[in-house]
Amino acid sequence: MSSRRLPASIDPYKFADQEKEINATLDLEYLDRFRQELASDKGEIVCSIKGDRVEDTRITLLELSLKGKVSLVCQGCLEPFEYELDHDVIIYPVYSEEQMERVPDDGDPVLVDDDGLHLKSVVEDELILSLPAVPLFGECEQMEAYESGELPEETVEQAEKDNPFNALKDLKFD
From CA 23, how far away is CA 119, in angstroms rounded? Predict the structure, then answer.
């Protein structure tokens, strides 16, 4: 099944039992929450959702694959750049928080309500999570200011000397 939109919701257990698959090409304009993270709403995401069950445990899972190019704003130079999005994840639909604890570590548990699994919300959540926390491109990726590491060590004497409140300690109050 290929479309420009996703079904509003599905019963993930029937979907997995029947080994169904959804293939959709989604316009960024359709993805309201995800679009807010982008520099432009032009483009599309190729989405594939396949239902399956783990053979030995019969746990229901959905294999979600998201691919496309999106425009992000570089946080170093504030210029837009193209970002290649390629995100694969396993979704384990569950009906309670107790079931969440029994989900295998290789995927993400997603709470299903009485109406079923809301695919658009799940897809948008995964798209947002697939974006870099601090988008950087080109020369900005190479800048030392963005590298993580240990902070320089400071002695107690140096910290006390640099303390701006040291000038206040000599003030006397009656």
Answer: 12
